[in-house]
């Protein structure tokens, strides 16, 4: 049986993972519909990756400082 803290941790990672997958689909669809080309698609996914990198860095920093 999971404790409340374990459930919240799993829910956070699964929920954020699902949102990330959905954002990747949205950005891919946006690039396809706007005919952004290779460079435009690269720029869109780079911006998404920077946001995801910020989330990962925050998570690592919080865990190491505790």
Walkthrough of the structure:
There is one protein chain. It is elongated, with a radius of gyration of 16 Å. It is 89% helix and 0% strand. It has helices spanning 4-33, 37-65. The mean pLDDT is 92. The protein is mainly alpha-helical and 66 residues long. The chain contains 2 helices and no strands. The chain has one domain.
SSE diagram, text form:
Elements: H1 4-33, H2 37-65
Helix pairs in contact: 1-2
Give a nutshell description of this structure.
With 66 residues, the protein is mostly helical. The protein has helices at residues 4-33, 37-65. The protein has one domain (4-65).
Contiguous runs where pLDDT drops below 50 for at least 5 residues: none
Q: What is the strand content?
A: under 5%
Reading the helices and strands in chain order gives HH
Shape: elongated
Instruction: Determine the fraction of residues in helical runs and give it as a percent range.
Output: over 70%
Per DSSP E runs of 2 or more residues, the count of β-strands stands at 0
Rg, nearest Å: 16 Å
Number of domains: 1
The termini sit apart by: 25 Å
Average pLDDT confidence is 92
Q: Quickly count the helices.
A: 2
Broad structural category? mainly alpha
Largest sheet at a glance?
A: none
Key phrases:
2 helices, 66 residues, mainly alpha
């Amino acid at each position: 049986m999971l404790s409340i803290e374990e459930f919240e941790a799993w829910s956070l990672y699964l929920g954020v993972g699902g949102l990330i997958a959905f954002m990747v689909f949205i950005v891919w669809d946006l690039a396809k519909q706007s005919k952004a080309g290779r460079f435009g698609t690269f720029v869109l996914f780079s911006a998404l990756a920077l946001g995801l990198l910020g989330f990962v860095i925050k998570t690592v920093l919080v865990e190491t400082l505790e």
